[in-house]
TrEMBL record, chains A, B:
This is S-methyl-5-thioribose kinase. Residues 1-23 are annotated as: Disordered. The keyword Nucleotide-binding applies. It is an enzyme of class 2 (transferase). GO terms for molecular function: ATP binding; S-methyl-5-thioribose kinase activity. One of its GO terms (biological process) is methionine biosynthetic process. InterPro entries: Aminoglycoside_PTrfase, Kinase-like_dom_sf, Methylthioribose_kinase. Homodimer. Signal peptide: none annotated. It comes from Ancylobacter aquaticus. Its EC number is 2.7.1.100. Belongs to the methylthioribose kinase family. Residues 37-273 form the Aminoglycoside phosphotransferase domain.
Amino acid sequence: MLTRSPYEPLTPTTMPARLGGLPEMTRRLGPSAEWRVREVGDGNLNLVFIVEGPAGSLVVKQALPYARVVGESWPMSLDRAYFEHEASMRLGARDPGRMPHMHLFDREQAVQIMEHLTPHIILRRGLIDGTRYPMLGGHLGRYLARTLFRGSDWSMETARRKADVALFAGNVELCGITEDLFFTDPFHDCVRNRHNPLLDRDVIELRGDRALKLAALRMKTRFCTSAQTLLHGDLHTGSIMVSAEDSRVIDAEFATYGPIGFDIGSLLANLWMACLAQGALRPSDDEATSYRGWILALAETVWKVFVAEFTHLWLTERSGILGGRELLEHQDDAEGAALALNALLDEIWRDTIGFAGIEMHRRVVGLAHIAEFEAIADEELRAGCERRALRLGRALAVEPERFSDIADVSALVAELAGRDR
Amino acid sequence: MLTRSPYEPLTPTTMPARLGGLPEMTRRLGPSAEWRVREVGDGNLNLVFIVEGPAGSLVVKQALPYARVVGESWPMSLDRAYFEHEASMRLGARDPGRMPHMHLFDREQAVQIMEHLTPHIILRRGLIDGTRYPMLGGHLGRYLARTLFRGSDWSMETARRKADVALFAGNVELCGITEDLFFTDPFHDCVRNRHNPLLDRDVIELRGDRALKLAALRMKTRFCTSAQTLLHGDLHTGSIMVSAEDSRVIDAEFATYGPIGFDIGSLLANLWMACLAQGALRPSDDEATSYRGWILALAETVWKVFVAEFTHLWLTERSGILGGRELLEHQDDAEGAALALNALLDEIWRDTIGFAGIEMHRRVVGLAHIAEFEAIADEELRAGCERRALRLGRALAVEPERFSDIADVSALVAELAGRDR
């Protein structure tokens, strides 16, 4: 039904006629004559529709042949829907329940029909509103450990992993966006960049900061050459939907094989930036301090649960060719196995803070900014927050040896945020 | 002609009838009735024929559906001929003149028809004979720099590099042999291993050496996850053919994307092991010392020419996405570019000695041993050489910080070799 015609973007008006014959839709929604369709896409790339009917609701996501955030002048392959679907199937299976359920994928139309998450909102919105999510840290820490461990050569049958490396090596276009937007654009005068004019001097300083630029290149090299595991590839707080009791990860179209620390660093960077915005977002210092403390604790929980779950998986599911059981446990050397795990966790931590530091720069001086800062009406206040994000980001990227533990980062975030009004 | 029948191993008897209709053969050899065919394969995996006719000679290499070194009990896919051919085309183009010229490839018969290198011999044979090759160090250093740089994201258009990553991710079977035989088998009690019985105590010690086993796992992780460039994948002195003036690299069937230091470390390890065999191979101490000195100088030349050529390519051909010109040269920071290069060369050096250390272990206690040691008839003398190779290998793999420069390795090789009679 969906594929009989060549690719054409859906609209609320054409959707009942175009998708009304799909049993995957009518079974869950009721007859198409009674559908109500809203386009709700607020992301940078795609059309997203919520379709409601008498029997329920669904989300229909369709890729556009260009980047929505820029327009038709930035053409973009529809294949990204295919890679998103392939990645979502894998990530969803590696940590069941954390991705929306997928009902149907049509490659030619670049359409995914999936579960409508309700009453969920985007986590970034929740962090602006000041909502607390008691389950979130555990959910995200386990999601990171399970998806990142289970897509690697520590866990997978290596022929399957190599086939996946090959498959996702095809996601060149979206991977290229990450390569440019994270690691290159913010550090030179690129037409895609934008920044708060009050930061003009900071940006000049940044562009002359050799140590920072070498760190950006170092992390780009890690990203491009270290094929440790299947990454979500864009795991910021806008790619997570939350309700009081549930947490879901969406938008995996940037998936690629890369270093474990990339997803973790992206997420933690966005939590730490949210901390830096609180002073400007809350009516009172007490509220700001209290909520900032909650986000800092959330970030620590994410990391600590990640470490605990990764350790558990290392001990119980280390069946891949990098497991090394023949060399360690099978020679009665459990302590050696613990040392190997610690060395790996150290490397993941260094990558995590390196990637977090880079993420902060692109969110202040690159193309894609964050709603927490954009929501600050006062330009001076906003510049202060952004400047502190740059300071934090530089410390993480250039002086990783200052942060042997996540508590060291929390302390610096709290110190910087203490100056935020 | 070649593909009309299903796969069948060639023999000297059937070759004229089966290949006599190929213009690629008759043009270079003359009519098939006058061919003389010898099977000369001394490698571990394939049939290799030299075919001579009135007009010239050719080599015909055909994969067998099993590992020749073990027999039909170790089945192996014929696809390795395809990967060898694909790799040879690329490596040959990246450093023209260092691979034999390929005339024809037939995938179904797993046959490659290529230039007959004459009067070349295998380098390992030359190192046993004590021959000096004045051009060799320059040839190999440039080969390493050119092939390893030009297959990477420092040089290639990234979509092409990602397509090659995907292609060679399919070489699972031969890559798996490397993963097992280099990094795992030697460090546990594996049925494929063999060693000189006089080393029984050393092997027990080795198997209990936690630091060594952790180093092996660390280097295996580098090999499996660090997709820096297209490697030859088996670059020892048995994969190099030499004449007085020419040097060629053969047998690229183990090609895979991996860390730059792997090929370099494999090669240097084999040169250093050849040094350790000299005392037992030469009739006089003077001859042994002198020829050992030549091999040590050769290894230093290989590394230094590699560094010089890699530096030249870095400065002149750094067109890939990891080049970072936008961040450095384009912002008038040539010194920053030099620092980035130095950091990369440091990493390559650490990888190089790490892989060299692992290679030495597998050549003494794993499946595939080296002719330099095997040629030593006296078991005690041979055990002494092998033991020194293990000592050197352990130092390189476990204490890399001892070797800031290749001269530090030369000094240790010379010191160990000084005790070799």
